[in-house]
Write a structure and sequence with these properties.
Layout: H1 2-7, H2 14-27, H3 32-44, H4 51-63, H5 69-79, H6 88-100, H7 107-119, H8 126-138, H9 144-151
């Protein structure tokens, strides 16, 4: 299946590029050649990925502990100008993924995510609180306004 998928990646739609690593992560199937090929194909079409697809792709690679720096940097760059479009679940999952992959160098994205999260705290669920708090602890980020919002 992986070989067939790799040979057809150039034809894949953005959602399909997101669904494949999500399926691998859900199945806990670490197939390095497939994930590397998906990462390459995704970077070529990163501007076509919606915010949910950016978050899901990052979550998938983090779930598999697969740190593909060029892909992660491309996702970060694509997310920055669109951070206000992320819902709280996508923000929490993205924070969790960045922490899982120890992407501590991404301070501007993390600061933007914190500000956007605070503005959306009216719809927060327990899982989102837990993911965001864990990410702050893991990355050793003390963002007092965000932590106050999580505690409220």
């Amino acid at each position: 299946i992986a070989s067939a998928a790799i040979s057809r990646l150039t034809e894949a739609k953005p959602q399909e590029l997101t669904s494949m690593p999500w399926a691998c992560a859900t199945l806990r199937m670490m197939h390095a050649p497939l994930l590397a090929a998906i990462a390459s194909a995704s970077m070529l079409r990163i501007s076509e990925l919606r915010v949910q697809e950016l978050a899901a792709t990052l979550w998938s690679y983090a779930t598999l502990s697969c740190s593909n720096a060029p892909l992660l940097n491309a996702i970060s760059s694509a997310a920055m100008p669109n951070i206000t479009k992320f819902d709280l679940r996508n923000l929490a999952n993205t924070a969790w993924a960045l922490a899982k992959l120890m992407m501590t160098h991404d301070s501007p994205l993390l600061a933007s995510m914190a500000a956007s999260s605070i503005a959306k705290m009216t719809t927060v669920r327990q899982q989102e609180i837990a993911n965001t708090a864990w990410a702050c602890a893991k990355l050793q980020i003390w963002h007092e306004p965000l932590l106050d919002s999580l505690a409220a």
